[in-house]
């Protein structure tokens, strides 16, 4: 298998196409990248900026390019010795009229070959929906929309459609017999031919329907007749309702989705419908293009999006491995809790790296300072519950408010399987107990597909039941009944049905965790928001260097081929914004004094409504931290920064769901918070202390930025660079972190850097890098140097031992480790907790008398990568000062 030495994530869309990517390949090659890591390339909803709303997985998205252009890219990559890692989306597709498979289901119902393609529970609500799929697309109840004339039947290029503003949905074929003059033999024959192909494959059906539509279009008299018939239907609401209501779908108000949904959605998003990927026919159809690209050596690896949404992840991985071959590098997007491991029987190389983000973010946070900030926060926002209680509360609230239909679906399915026979329970309490247990599960999901469950999963199940018992004492009998689901004793058929239910249940616990925690609690619980991050958690704020070393040793053992990521298209803030906010823990005393000062100074921009202050103390604290993370390092902002900040805070407030939501917008509160930001960032009494403090934070965070790059590229795992993050990344959450990247600027910086390097004077180069720090060129330099070094020593970094190193006289202020493989050695040295260390060393040279205790068998002579300094062992120790006095971080080789 050809493992990447590094990956570079690109977001492909109409603004950044295959042609744009082709132009920057030489730049990425000079940067040291080995592998392009591409967002989904299948056809998606027109105008999609991300590609996860797939409409046709078997065709290249024409907005990003053609198959021929992808072939050209592939050839150029091979010429440069580079490869391609492709993101795929097997869990869901877009609920869109552009999704021909889905539209075919809506048109032909059970006769469609795609009837079982999508995860639709046709019989969930029995007679109420009559075996239909609910389409929550209307602005009001259907009756109101009919009365207002907002719903019409219309003759379109694709045939007869139900039209609601810009949306349109197909009508079952029976309407053609009503609309066309079938008393005439020629039209009777044409309609009969259409009926003959009612259950044909999609291409055949579409072709036959096209013949009929063209015949109507070419016959002006018949077209007028059809138009008249449609006008008659549209002019009589009852007649129109009759035709609309006899479809295999039901048009409903969008708000009904929260309580009566009967198709599985991706993360409660109505516009994304999940697939039955466990169905072999679905798997085979969906992966046709991927198989061809892999067979033709145009891609060398895949990243599986949202693997936790699949019914049977292990089985899916095995099928995909068989389809793509043993040499295909395969990883999955998987959010692992701090103590959680990827299942050992998955035939994957690893994960997309969110757990690494957490480990490095935690070790670059001062534990002592973070505890002081947590104490301050509890006094600042005294009503905020403990984190674990808040997580349960918000998960359960989200389930009740937005996933009630899915909750009903699960309860009905559980009862239909008859696995609780002989157990006493109330259905309503059973439903509640099930929801409470889901909210109590401390991980995204478990992967039970047979009995007995692995011990680690049994412990998680027991822990969830223990929490649920405390949260819902009125459901004790029902919880006891549910607990029997996780035991395989007794009847084999009943045991098989239990596994069926558990696997189904797990498809909903992941979305509940994501929406309840990442998209709610992470905007609400704010002691130190740099840890409110995908893969990370504010349940702990900082880990020790020893704890980090243990995580890396474990990573080498169990997940050495996973990506090491620090920013993605889904992270809540840019990697350098996170590090800035981390620094607040090192400056806890100064920070908390300033926050209280700013609260007084900026009170003129707060608005009162009765007992309510806008923004709340909690949101005000969130705003200050966010501005620290993203404010321009130059100390000057422009209108663009204000607009970005405005959009971000509105999104953050809606995600928090405390005073406003996407479905119940509180414009008064949102506008007050926007006015607050607008006021303070141009208010001298605030800015005269804010800007100097930001610059003080940036001075420390810039060292951590370089340290994070070095750790990412040298610790166990494969470094992943998110687009543009070779320079500073202080973006907010999406869509801010998906803005177009200025590659012209980056190439110019690269040329300037290479010219400076070519001059040969390393001391002058390092001085220039420090002077130009605000441009990000220092980060570019470190990224380029270490990526090329890693590429030259790929086996060392993939397979080499990982050894923690002790720094004499440094205490907890230097993180250092060694990588060793077949006689080649690398030492990595990164300062941590810099502020306290600088204060402690006041009046002394910062790194004087500090040295590395070299491990047994290590060489005597070392060369440092960034400074070019050669260092010799002295009395068994390797001094730090010769290189750390010249540059903030170090990579030494021997």
From TrEMBL:
<dbReference type="GO" id="GO:0030980">
    <property type="term" value="P:alpha-glucan catabolic process"/>
</dbReference>
<dbReference type="GO" id="GO:0047470">
    <property type="term" value="F:(1,4)-alpha-D-glucan 1-alpha-D-glucosylmutase activity"/>
</dbReference>
<dbReference type="InterPro" id="IPR017853">
    <property type="entry name" value="GH"/>
</dbReference>
<dbReference type="InterPro" id="IPR006047">
    <property type="entry name" value="GH13_cat_dom"/>
</dbReference>
<dbReference type="GO" id="GO:0005992">
    <property type="term" value="P:trehalose biosynthetic process"/>
</dbReference>
<dbReference type="Pfam" id="PF00128">
    <property type="entry name" value="Alpha-amylase"/>
</dbReference>
<protein>
    <submittedName>
        <fullName>Malto-oligosyltrehalose synthase</fullName>
    </submittedName>
</protein>
<feature type="domain" description="Glycosyl hydrolase family 13 catalytic">
    <location>
        <begin position="17"/>
        <end position="467"/>
    </location>
</feature>
<dbReference type="InterPro" id="IPR012767">
    <property type="entry name" value="Trehalose_TreY"/>
</dbReference>
<dbReference type="InterPro" id="IPR013797">
    <property type="entry name" value="Maltooligo_trehalose_synth_4"/>
</dbReference>
């Amino acid at each position: 298998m050809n493992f990447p030495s590094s990956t570079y994530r690109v977001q492909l869309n109409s603004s950044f196409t295959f042609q744009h990517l082709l132009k920057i390949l030489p730049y990425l090659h000079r940067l040291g990248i080995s592998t392009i890591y591409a967002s989904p390339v299948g056809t998606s909803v027109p105008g999609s900026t991300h590609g996860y709303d797939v409409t046709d997985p078997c065709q290249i998205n024409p907005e990003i390019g053609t198959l021929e252009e992808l072939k050209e890219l592939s050839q150029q990559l091979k010429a440069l010795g580079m490869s391609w890692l492709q993101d795929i989306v097997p869990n869901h597709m877009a609920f869109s009229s552009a999704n021909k498979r889905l539209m075919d289901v809506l048109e032909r119902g059970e006769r469609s070959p795609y009837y079982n393609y999508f995860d639709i529970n046709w019989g969930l609500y029995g007679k109420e929906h009559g075996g239909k799929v609910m389409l929550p697309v209307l602005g009001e109840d259907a009756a109101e929309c009919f009365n207002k004339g907002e719903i019409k039947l219309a003759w379109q290029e694709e045939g007869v459609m139900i039209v609601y503003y810009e949306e349109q949905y197909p009508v079952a074929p029976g309407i053609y017999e009503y609309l066309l003059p079938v008393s005439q033999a020629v039209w009777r024959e044409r309609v009969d031919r259409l009926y003959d192909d009612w259950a044909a494959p999609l291409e055949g059906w579409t072709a036959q329907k096209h013949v009929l539509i063209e015949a109507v279009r070419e016959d002006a008299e018949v077209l007028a007749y059809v138009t008249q018939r449609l006008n008659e239907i549209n002019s009589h609401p009852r007649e129109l309702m009759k035709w609309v209501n006899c479809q295999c779908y039901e048009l409903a108000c969008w708000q009904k989705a929260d309580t009566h949904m009967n198709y599985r959605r991706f993360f409660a998003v109505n516009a994304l419908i999940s697939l039955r990927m466990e169905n072999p026919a679905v798997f085979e159809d969906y992966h046709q293009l991927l198989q061809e690209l892999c067979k033709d050596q145009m891609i060398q690896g895949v990243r599986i999006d949202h693997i936790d949404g699949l019914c049977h992840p292990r089985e899916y991985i095995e099928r995909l491995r068989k389809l793509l071959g043993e040499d295909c590098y395969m990883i999955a997007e998987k959010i692992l809790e701090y103590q959680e491991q990827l299942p050992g029987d998955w035939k994957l190389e690893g994960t997309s790296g969110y757990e690494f983000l957490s480990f490095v973010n935690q070790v670059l946070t001062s534990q002592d300072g973070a505890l002081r900030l947590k104490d301050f926060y509890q006094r600042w926002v005294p009503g905020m519950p403990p984190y674990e209680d808040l997580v349960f509360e918000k998960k359960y609230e989200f389930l009740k408010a937005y996933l009630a239909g899915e909750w009903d679906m699960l309860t009905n399915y559980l009862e239909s399987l008859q696995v609780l026979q002989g157990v006493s329970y109330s259905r309503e309490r059973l439903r509640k107990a099930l929801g409470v247990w889901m909210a109590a599960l401390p991980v995204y999901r478990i992967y039970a597909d047979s009995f007995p469950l692995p011990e680690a999963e049994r412990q998680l199940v027991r822990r969830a039941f223990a929490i649920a018992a405390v949260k819902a004492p009125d459901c004790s009998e029902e919880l006891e009944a549910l607990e029997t689901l996780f035991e395989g004793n007794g009847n084999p058929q009943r045991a098989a049905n239990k596994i069926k239910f558990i696997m189904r249940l797990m498809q909903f616990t992941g979305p509940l965790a994501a929406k309840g925690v990442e998209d709610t609690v992470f905007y609400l619980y704010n002691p130190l928001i740099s840890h409110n991050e995908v893969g990370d958690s504010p349940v702990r704020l900082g880990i020790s260097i020893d704890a980090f070393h243990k995580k890396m040793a474990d990573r080498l053992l169990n997940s050495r081929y996973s990506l090491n990521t620090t920013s993605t298209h889904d992270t809540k803030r840019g990697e350098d914004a996170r590090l800035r906010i981390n620094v607040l823990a090192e400056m806890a005393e100064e920070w908390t004094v300033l926050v209280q000062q700013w609260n007084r100074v900026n009170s003129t921009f707060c608005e009162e409504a009765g007992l309510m202050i806008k923004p709340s103390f909690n949101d005000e604290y969130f705003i200050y931290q966010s501005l620290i993370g993203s404010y321009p390092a130059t100390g000057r902002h422009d209108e663009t920064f204000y607009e970005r900040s405005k959009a971000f805070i509105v999104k953050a407030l809606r995600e928090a769901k405390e005073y406003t939501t996407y479905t119940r917008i509180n414009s008064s509160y949102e506008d007050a918070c926007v006015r607050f930001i607008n006021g303070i960032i141009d208010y001298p009494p605030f800015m005269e202390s804010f800007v100097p403090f930001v610059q003080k934070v940036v001075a420390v965070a810039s060292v951590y930025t370089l340290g994070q790059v070095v750790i990412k590229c040298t610790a166990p795992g494969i470094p992943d660079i998110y687009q543009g993050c070779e320079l500073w990344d202080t973006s907010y959450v999406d869509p801010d972190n998906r803005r177009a990247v200025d590659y012209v600027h980056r190439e110019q910086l690269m040329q300037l850097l290479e010219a400076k390097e070519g001059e040969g004077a390393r001391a002058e180069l390092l001085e220039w890098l420090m002077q130009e720090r605000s441009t990000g060129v220092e980060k570019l330099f470190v990224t380029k140097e270490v990526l090329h070094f890693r590429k030259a020593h790929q086996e060392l970094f993939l397979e080499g031992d990982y050894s923690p190193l002790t720094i004499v006289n440094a205490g907890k202020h230097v993180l250092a480790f060694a990588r060793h493989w077949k006689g080649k050695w690398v030492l990595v040295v990164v300062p941590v907790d810099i502020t306290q260390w600088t204060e402690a060393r006041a009046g002394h040279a910062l790194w004087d008398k500090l040295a590395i205790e070299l491990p047994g068998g290590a060489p005597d002579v070392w060369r440092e990568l960034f400074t070019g300094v050669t260092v010799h062992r002295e009395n068994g120790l390797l001094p730090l000062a010769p290189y750390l006095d010249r540059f903030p971080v170090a990579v030494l080789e021997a």
